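Example 288, ligand pantoate.
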Amino acid sequence: MKVCYTKRDLMTEVNRLRREKGETIGFVPTMGALHKGHLSLIERAHYENHAAVVSIFVNPIQFNNPDDLKTYPRTLEADLKLLEPFDIDLVFAPSAEEMYPPGEPIEHYDFGALERVMEGKNRPGHFNGVGVVVGRLLHMVNPTRAYFGEKDYQQIAIVQELVRQLKLPVKIVPCPIVREDDGLALSSRNLLLTPEQRAIAPAIHRILLASADLCKAAHRDDAVAPAKHMVEQAVADVPGMTLEYFEIVDGRTLQPIETWYDAPEQVGCIVVRLGDVRLIDNIRYGKF
Ligand code: PAF
């Protein structure tokens, strides 16, 4: 497993991989603090391509909150150890100066309605930051496939739109959420939870499952509002947990829907806070 720290080394190594291993490259961009969710993407990238490349970079320009950036876990050495048994061909772990050379302008993307809801609305600038770093990484690695976890459901739609706008020949592969046995979606931010917060965090998934029961019992033209209210109330009933948002949206456009009938596939997207820790999760209803 080779670790590159500069763009120039990365591009040289990617060319070597193409010559020596074969044409297809699977790419998994990450911000490190790797967990089983990342490892499931990495295994798939490895399995479906001749070579696998992983990036580890805590992207400062996608954090709209400086404290969040400061406390985001950085565990490069442990990450590299964790990757060793996976037979990864290449890891790219650039510095911020390498990704954003001082004086070089930052691209500006317009993702339209996709970025005006949920994460885009609540974290101004977040998706532009994601678009910039993912666009730059995809240009450098030029992968055949790139793998993203469905926990960040909206991010996948943004990345798909980015790839369309940049006309990049890469297939974006969404991968299922990986959960702990108690239902908590794996996230690097789980490392920041106190034992007390960790103990109540699985309530998020339980509440989403309860909203799916309401969906199952609903008729096509029933309003989604009762499911929304149930989730709002259930989160309010968990001591120490606050709801940032819960939306039931069209799974393709990400726009909120009024009735279950309004979209062929509906997704419930939630963000809660436990103290300063912000956790994201979602559930696909997909009944009608
Ligand atoms: O999902 C993440 O970890 C990040 O948003 C990504 C895609 C690696 C871009 O920094």
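Summary: Residues 29-31, 59, 62, 130, 133-134, 152, 155 surround pantoate (CB under 6 Å).
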